[in-house]
Structures
1.
Amino acid sequence: MTGKEGYDVLRLIEHGQTCYISSEYVEGRILAGLIKSNPNITKERLFFLMREIANQLGMFHKCRKNPYYQYLNPYSIVVTDEGKLYFLDLEAGSNEKRLRFMQRRAVRECFLPKEEAYYQRASMELDIYGLGKTLQYLLALSKPDPLLNSREERKFLRIISKCLNYQSKASYQSAADIRRNIPQYKKQTEHRTAIRKRLLLAAAGGVILAAAWKLQRAYRFEGQAEYPDFHMTQESKSAFRESEEADAAGETGLEAGAQRSSRSEEYMELALAYLLELEDYDKSLYYLEKLQQYAQAVNLKEVAEALMGREKDSGLLAESLQGLEEEAQKDMTGQYCRCLIKGYSLLDTQQSANSILRLSRVCMERLEDGTKAANEVRVYMAQAYEKLGEIQEAVKLYEELLVQETDGMKREETYQKTAALYEASGQMDRAREICVRGIAEQEGTEELKLVHIRLMCQDASIGRDLCAQTIQEYVRQAPEILEKEEFQKLVRDYEIQMEGEQVWVGR
């Protein structure tokens, strides 16, 4: 193992129902760096690491009166040469640099819920969220050998979804529950499964997998029974239930479903789930490639490639969107609406803006208000209205989002956008009011404070003393504002002077 360093880690010793904890010095590598530099890993080893992370977290929860780790992510886990896994001792002075790294905004945004802007509190829910993001990270960066099969992918989709929906009543209540759900890798089982698959393919000419039903179960949210975009006939539901029962009994689910659905249905459900819910376009393309005999999949592939940043001829993309829309008209689900809306947003024309508005009205009829999907559609609608110059309609939608949206980071973005639109329409008082509302709700936001300072300074009717007082307060709350390029520009434009905690605004 190269690039290893020494770390103070937590040594957890379980004895019966009791757990003891001590600090220990070990040499090893941070898990994130290890996976980045060595992505090729056996499936057996990958599953072991996942189960061991969950196991260590469960043991930690037994060890302390306030049993929450708080900083669970791939940067707080050490792997030794011997393959042992430890959590960093974050109270050790030697790990202070590592702790500061994890407190950086770029890292926080990856491993904390967006409504939790800082590591300000520790809780079971946030530990479970961190575990889910860590599993997601490992799956995204690793290249297991052999590759995960479809059953394993669906299982991990369920696990991660339940972890990340930490506020839902259906979320995991303990790390032990998660560990039990992480699949065990057995070479013999893998071999038998492969043989069984080949036999079924030969006998039936295709294999039936219950992806839609299982994915439907994977995306449960509080306040809604099941994710609304996954629609099935009664016949399909019956088949999928049988498959679930077989799966629970230790079967692959292939035999139970072999006569009732098609492999293509599973691939399409997985492709759409990766494209819309996880925004993992590489994975989505992987499954769409298996469906190139279908025009629908070909058109979706063009959209997915455009979304991941691959340069596309606008005419070809428009043609693919038109083809996809024609196909989807036969059964226009919320999923296809969202795919089309995402695709049209890339064209950035008035015609595409009108298409977004048209599709959004259809889409909103199929989505439950207040869900992530519905709020996402509202954003696209607001952007379309803005493109068409209908500022008041755009502002109205952003104001609605401030009522519906619960994601902290997205709320901050919405406040910024609403303030900008009010400013563009000349409603300066409303723009400043929105800034004040957003800052009161999310004190840590630097961007909104900078916008508010600018709006105050550029209004000659507002006293310079009040401007200076506001700047002084914001700098006290968030000293890092001083380093922002935008603040330096404000200093030059409005002759702002600072001496200690004293602030003056020259003009």
2.
Amino acid sequence: MSTLGNCYTVLGNCYTDLKAKQKVPHKSVYVAIKVPHKSVLIFQKVPHKNVIYFTISLIFSIFAAKKQYMERFIMQDLIAWKNREDRKPLILLGARQVGKTYILKEFGQREFENVAYINCDNNAMAKDLFASDYNIDRILLTIGAITGVNIEAGKTLIIMDEIQELYRGLASLKYFCENAREYHVAVAGSLLGLSLHQGESYPVGKVNTLEMYPMTFEEFLWARGFKQRMDLLQHGMWDVVKSLRTLYIQHLREYYLVGGMPEAVNKFIETNDANAVREVQEEIIRVYEKDISKHAPKEQVVRINQVWNSIPSQLAKENKKFIYGIVKQGARAKDYELAIQWLIDAGLVYKISRVKTLGLPLKIHEDISAFKLYLLDCGLLGAMSKTPPAMLLLPSNDNTGKGDFTENFVCCQLESLRQIPIYYYSKENSQLELDFVIQVGMQVIPVEVKAEENLQSKSLKATIAKYPGMKGLRFSMSDYREQDDITNVPLYGARGYLETYN
């Protein structure tokens, strides 16, 4: 039965109970409410005759809250920022639609007495907020008037959304840092608007920054109500994970379809409808394409769109090295360098460069002429490639159409860890290639990705043989196991494993 159906059942029971107990000596009763995400009981005294109405309101409010609320790992980073003694105004970076506004509002509601939120996009009252001067007292008074919130240091979170749309908005953060650091100021805007903002200097050294990504597979489980299953992955309890492998594999295939864009995840939770999810993803892609036209240099718009639209074809190749000829026949690197960099800066694609040698640090062995481009979200990859949902949800013997999604999935999980340098490895005039090479502390780890349960790893084994003492990592649908110098980790446990790797 659906959650809403359960609500109606509860209401029916409440009504029956009230009919059976019409004669109540007291004029009012206390109703105990357990708030799901707060884990507390709230007692409210209401007139007995209004219990049914109170119950209706309560149940539907709980239903609505459950429908909308999603935990994100970045919440802990936001709390840490709040408590820093050397705190500066915060810029939350990330591609459009990854949930920046949502998490800042949720953070404010949890951690502060008040939240003063301003959407700066086409806000007539806010458009001249910083036009005349940077007088902090005047600015705070105006923000309070616009939002209807009394601004108190330490008690109020000030959120300015899409701040790049305000004249001198970014520059104002310097003055908050220098003259009003006791106030908690957080701003959000898409990388399309913030990192690429023209005509205004970025407040270097005067802000703290956090970067936000689409929801990881673990956050997807969390949003679905499977926190225990997420915890098992994060704690590496592989024996228990093995016993639940059928469930994890199904969740992973669902994630291939849905991806980590919060709106798509929410739609999946609401409807369990692949077509409805795909409609959300297609709309997000349209928004991105509109943003390209809005923010990109006009002379680069066509080329940016050409690169953007070529990515599914690039990833469908067995060798996923970026080929300019797929973008346009006869295309050359110098013609598309700016377009590619623009997409990278916008957070829409991840660039993974090649290394020819597996030595520390990997950065000094980077070959900038050879690279792969991955989309920021595997769900959007499915929408862009028009991949039938059934292909993603069902296993396949030949892995047709799976390798690109699997590799894109692993790349996104690695990128979300932020602190891990990521490359791939190949040799000229050789078939030997490793999907990824990562640097964790003082270790270089070669990584091979398998879409299903295939444990053959010719390139990985050949590489390890060439570098004595090196340990390899294989992500596949097989269970966790250690074989000689290779550790196999289930694809669904990739991020959790690396997050605690030592």
